[in-house]
Design a protein that fits this description.
With 143 residues, this protein is mainly alpha-helical. Helix content is 94%, strand content 0%.
Length: 143
């Protein structure tokens, strides 16, 4: 009888040990699966955020390039308009200088000792030349 009593106790210990081993294996499998799922989630999030970052960076680069091109075109247009304006002013001043030179030549030919017209004309001519030089300098700065 004692053999019979030992057998049920031994079998219950074996069953308990088997259950403990199975529960340990199940727990290890459970932790492994959760670790795999968490790692996969972290990896997926990383891949997704990198893709979004590349996409946003590309969009920003395109927008920046477009805005730079627009600003460059606007700047070029303004420079061209200013250059044209200065060219027009220079040609007007050149016409005035030529007219003053003709007037000065005429005044020298017809001047007598009592009139001081030639000095006035020279003064006006020098002022016009100064303005012309200033416009040329401004045009050079713009170029």
């Amino acid at each position: 009888m004692s053999e019979m009593q030992l057998e049920p106790g031994a079998s219950s210990r074996q069953a308990a040990n088997t259950r403990k081993k199975r529960s340990k294996a199940a727990f290890i499998a459970f932790i492994g699966i959760w670790t795999f799922l968490i790692g996969g989630g972290v990896y997926g999030a990383k891949v997704y955020t990198e893709g979004m970052q590349r996409e946003i960076t590309a969009d920003i680069e395109r927008q920046t390039a477009r805005q730079i091109a627009e600003l460059q075109n606007e700047y070029d247009g303004r420079i061209t308009a200013m250059e044209q304006s200065y060219q027009n002013e220079i040609s007007v001043l050149k016409d005035k200088v030529d007219a003053l030179n003709e007037l000065l030549t005429f005044a020298k030919d017809n001047a007598d000792d009592k009139t001081d017209n030639s000095n006035k004309l020279y003064t006006q001519l020098n002022e016009v030349k100064k303005q012309l030089d200033e416009l040329k300098k401004s045009l050079d700065v713009l170029k």
